[in-house]
Amino acid sequence: MNSLKKKEKVPITTMPSVDEKCCYNNPLGCFFCIMKEPNSSIRSNRIKNYFKKMSLIDEDQELVLVLSGLWTMAMSQPNDKELPSLGIFECMTSLINKGINHKSWLHKNQNIYIPYYAAHIIGSYTMNNVDFAIKALDCGVLVPLLDLSRGNMTWVEQRVAIRAIGHLASYDKTFKDVAIYEGEIVKLAMKLASTCLEDVYKEFVGLKDLNMRLKYHCDLLTRGVGGLEMENRKAEEWASQLQCWSLHLLNCFAIKERCLNLICDQNFLKDLSEMWGGLANDTSPGGVGLVRVLCYNKDGRRCIAESKDVIKNLCNLSRSSDDWQYMGIDCLLLLLADSGTRHKVLEVVSMCLVDLVELRTLGGKSNVGNTITRTLLDDFKQRKVKIKNNGVQQVLEEMWGLKVDRKKREKNMSDEILEEKRVMVSLMKQQGNNSFWLGKIEEAMMKYSEALDLCPLRFRKERIVLYSNRAQCKLLLGEANDAISDTTKALSLSSPTNSHAKSLWRRSQAYDMKGLAKESLMDCIMFVNCCFKMDSSMKKNMRIPYYAVRMINKQMESTWLFKNAQLRTFADLSEKPNHQPHDELQISHKEHINVRGTRILLQKKGFMEGLSSISEEHQLIEKGDIISRRNKKVVFTQSM
Questions:
Q1: What is the pTM of this model?
Q2: How far apart are CA 468 and CA 366, in angstroms?
Q3: Which residue from 170, 54, 174 is spatially nearest to 118, judged by alpha carbons?
Q4: What is the SS3 assignment for 362?
Q5: What residues does the ARM repeat N-terminal plant domain cover (predicted)?
């Protein structure tokens, strides 16, 4: 394996252009010249013959060059029927088997690249075409793909093998063939999803000596272009994909209610609820996608309801600005709708969902808040005496008062009364603002509460500001849970959902106080995005708020995909005698995080005045000052 260690960079070549000279001296002829043959019949016969004998080619550079070209064609033209009809799947199967069974050949020069390319080509052709998937299985691709997935090579080959198996399992017509190995595949996918991040960290990202990184890994990650930063970024992206494709494979079985007894292992469910695509793979729902599939099954709901950690993580997701917030809400509603699990989760879930009862549209669904209300208040009047938790009892009674009794009272309220109430609410809000700037936080909070009790439900904008202002008071008093509740209510009222900048920033700080880094990060990123979307008249001299940059950098370090793997590795190493901490690695990682965080923000430029950090506002209130400085104003009372 020493010959595979990182040395000089060798670019991975793609298919030569028509004008390039690329002929190789072998009995089969040059593949690229064959592809240029104008006579389709002659070309097909020669390609078919080439695929049959391709594994016999001795020239490793030619093999890798041809496979790289085939990889490019499979990625760019995955539905083209020519190559699949001429034996490409048999050829790729033969090459993978040769790499697995003949280690001396595999480690000869550039042959180490071949199994990766072969598995990737199979996955690309079977990604969207069921006919190709059927043909691939008929050609025996499953067994060698399983061999790669078992770890017969490295995590790089596992990534493309699991991807290909996931595509084969996603079609009804091919699932039965994959399901022959369902027990092994499900256990393997569960293990990969749980351990792949730690494996990639130990085998690549966390290596102190960069020369210990396998050369072919670096070449495949960067395509021969880019340095250390590119390698680290792509390794993070690929590790996330390996985890998400493992989850996709599990989804294929769970949606057919297969192997649920394995998937619903309590330790795995806890890990599952904490998996997310991360910033490197934001198109995947991560673990919550599989959790939602399990929630559609009675046994799945029972197992999930028994895990306090899973329920807690679903509640946190439901009150976040994550793209998959609606999935978290779906899971909780499914658990509440089942009489067998409702009583197990009601006390925890109701304290979360009560803040979302005024949601309108989320995840493509309308009237989400009304659905939450109906589910929580189902038979409430008949069974409320059975609720032992006084806090839950009070929450449900307040929800009934807000969504039922109060809504009825205000339904026929005249315009004159509505306007009168609007004026009174405005005056009470101003009184609260004055108290706030005088440092009388409890008094200000009481005024905002009184204004909320008086404000008609239809005045959504006014209620957004009141909830957000009250949340600021609670932040200053150190009441993070109540601040999260009020900011979530404000963000549920905003249109579109989660678009009130100040509430996002305040909830980000509240989540930071509770140590919930991912939720804090999502809110802070959304806050910056809201700043960018301001009216053009407010964009003069715009810049990114420094406190938002600071928060994002902090939370990106805490939510780094390999953070837990790094901590476990350091813990293991610290137990060894004469161990010296990896100072160089820690510094390099922090610099990498700061670069990534700053890049995300600098892709757009914006600045929103009137928002300071919680620590700064606390200092201002203690001094009793109202600060007005150039390029920075603390204007708490500004509504939008």
A1: 0.85
A2: 24
A3: 54
A4: strand
A5: 28-264
Amino acid at 273: S
Residue with tokens 């016999």: 56
SS3 at position 5? strand
Other CB atoms closer than 10 Å to residue 220's CB: what's the count? Answer: 21
Q: Which residues of the chain have pLDDT under 50?
A: 1-21, 384-385, 582-588, 591, 595, 598-640
Element housing 390 (H / E): helix 390-400
**517: CB partners within 8 A, 6+ apart:** 511, 554, 555, 558, 559
Q: Tally Cβ neighbours within 10 Å of residue 102.
A: 12
Helix, strand or coil for residue 266? Answer: helix
**Cα gap 80→118, rounded to integer Å:** 17
Under DSSP, is residue 637 helix (H, G, I), strand (E, B) or coil?
Answer: coil
User: Which of 331, 273, 233, 262 minimizes the C-alpha distance to 562?
Assistant: 233
Give tens-digit pLDDT for 55-68: 888 766 788 889 99
With both helix axes pointing from N to C terminus, report the angle between 415-437 and 441-454 in degrees, rounded to the nearest 10.
170
C-alpha span between 359 and 376 (Å, rounded): 14
Strand partners, 633: 628
Cβ-contact 157, 119 below 8 angstroms: yes
What one-character DSSP code corresponds to residue 505?
H
628-629/632-633 β-pairing: antiparallel
- Sign of the C-alpha dihedral, residues 343, 349, 351, 357? negative
